[in-house]
Write a structure and sequence with these properties.
alpha+beta; elongated
C-alpha cells in the first residue's frame, strides 16, 4: 500500500499543483464573466429615428397597402462597439399582411429584426394602422 502512494510521487505532486492552478484560473474567470456590474458596464442603448416600415404581403396580392405611420422609432441595446457600427439599414421593421383579404381599421404590431448581439428594447408606436384597399375583381 505504501508503494502505491510513494511510487511516482513527483508526478502526483505536479498533477495536484496543475489541477489547483487550473481550478483557480477557471474560478476567477467565471466570477469575472458572471459579475452583474461588469455586464452592465459594457451595455449601452441607442435609439434610431425614422426607421421605415415594410409591408409584407402575398406575392399574388398586388394591392398597395399603406401603414400609418410609415416610420418607427426603435430603441436597441447591446455592446457599445456593436451599437456604434449599427446603422438604420441594419434594422428591419415589418408588418406582415399575408393572408389578410379585407379589413377595416386594422391595427397590427410591427415585427422588428436586428442583427445578432443586439436586443430590441422599445418600438414606437407599438401598433401600426394598416390601410387595406378593397380587392378589385377581375373579369375574364
Amino acid at each position: 500500500m505504501r508503494a502505491l502512494l510513494t511510487r511516482d510521487l513527483g508526478w502526483k505532486v505536479l498533477s495536484l499543483v496543475l489541477a489547483t492552478v487550473v481550478w483557480f484560473t477557471v474560478r476567477t474567470l467565471s466570477r469575472e464573466a458572471l459579475s452583474p456590474a461588469k455586464a452592465l458596464e459594457s451595455w449601452a442603448t441607442r435609439t434610431f429615428e425614422d426607421v421605415p416600415v415594410l409591408v409584407v404581403s402575398a406575392a399574388a396580392d398586388v394591392r398597395e397597402f399603406r401603414v400609418q405611420p410609415p416610420v418607427a422609432q426603435i430603441t436597441v441595446s447591446g455592446r457599445p462597439e456593436v451599437l456604434k457600427a449599427l446603422e438604420t439599414r441594419d434594422i428591419h421593421v415589418m408588418v406582415n399582411l399575408t393572408g389578410i383579404e379585407t379589413a377595416r381599421d386594422l391595427k397590427m404590431r410591427p415585427d422588428v429584426s436586428v442583427p445578432a448581439g443586439v436586443t430590441v428594447e422599445r418600438v414606437v408606436p407599438t401598433e401600426m394602422r394598416v390601410i387595406v384597399p378593397p380587392k378589385s375583381e377581375t373579369l375574364p
